[in-house]
Amino acid sequence: MRQSIVILTVTLCCVALQSMGLAQSLLSEEQPPQPDILVIAFDGLNILSQCQPLGSCNFYSLANSGAERELRAVAAELGQSILVRGYSGYFVRHYSPATNKEELGLEDALQDMDWAKVNWPGTQYIVASGSQGSIFSHLLVAANPDVHFRYLMDFDDLCWMWPETLRGFQATMRSDPARYRYLADKLAPYLRANLCVPRHILAIPGTLHTFTDLIPWNVRFNLETRTTTLPKPPLGLAETVATDFFPNIREDGSRKDIYRFIDRNDAHGYLQASGTASSRWMGETIRQLEEGEAVKRRSVSER
């Protein structure tokens, strides 16, 4: 059976849906042919805005960016087709003042994932995320423990705004419990305010992590980039100090198949931009890992 790569790109920005056109899930339109690579882009939060619900004004982008171009280049080198999908960094679809259009949410992504698992057999999945959007990418992975994800790609993942985002959505759920039963059931273990409170992994005394730093075993490779808190004028304070302070780890405290890169030149919201060290590193690391895996497969087949 053909092995396809599905990339669920979960990140940040008001332009992320521009390459997808209308906001439609796989369930609401004529389904495209099964791609070798599916890019699903989640936007993150513009935490400086006053938009309600929180997260409806998005910021940054991995889709339509240097990171996406790196992924497309890798796909072309592997001889694989690619399809880009877009989702906002919020629980449900909503109107976004940032893009002036309706945007899909995590609920749509989870339902599309359910559909893809049934209708696109043999597909391998990859999740990429950035900043506050990483909460939703990691929730997607956690809610699908039966799925093997080839890559989990994190661009400076953060959890800072989770309590506020969750509080707003819980109020929405209380207003119509039946309407949101699917999400409540899917995310039941994770809809708690302390999800992003740093805690210790006992296997490594003194090591802290949050929900977005914990890499489950259904992820084969994790690639993470982070910026530094060094001043990067003329950027604002939030862009200068925002960074992922805690390195990613496995559930047993190890860092098996986790690769980390510190970008000392680019600010938090620009790691995925065209030409940045982070986007180039992501692409090159995937190339090297795929070449290494291909060598292993050839060695096994020649025995």
Descriptive key words:
303 residues, alpha/beta, Rossmann fold, seven-stranded parallel sheet, two-stranded antiparallel sheet, 7 helices, 28% helix
Account of the 3D structure:
The structure is a single chain. The protein has 303 residues and is α/β, with parallel strands linked by helices. The protein has a single domain (4-301), classed as Rossmann fold, CATH 3.40.50. The chain contains 7 helices and 13 strands. The chain has helices at 66-77, 106-119, 134-142, 162-175, 181-186, 237-241, 277-301, and strands at residues 4-10, 37-42, 82-87, 94-96, 101-103, 123-130, 149-155, 199-200, 208-209, 214-215, 219-227, 249-250, 258-263. The strands form 4 sheets. A 7-stranded parallel beta sheet has the order 3-2-1-6-7-11-13, sandwiched between helices. A hairpin with a 4-residue loop joins strand 4 (94-96) and strand 5. The longest helix is centred in the last third of the chain and has 25 residues, at 277-301. The radius of gyration is 18 Å and the shape is globular.
Summarize the structure.
By secondary structure, this protein is an alpha/beta fold. The chain has seven helices and 13 strands.
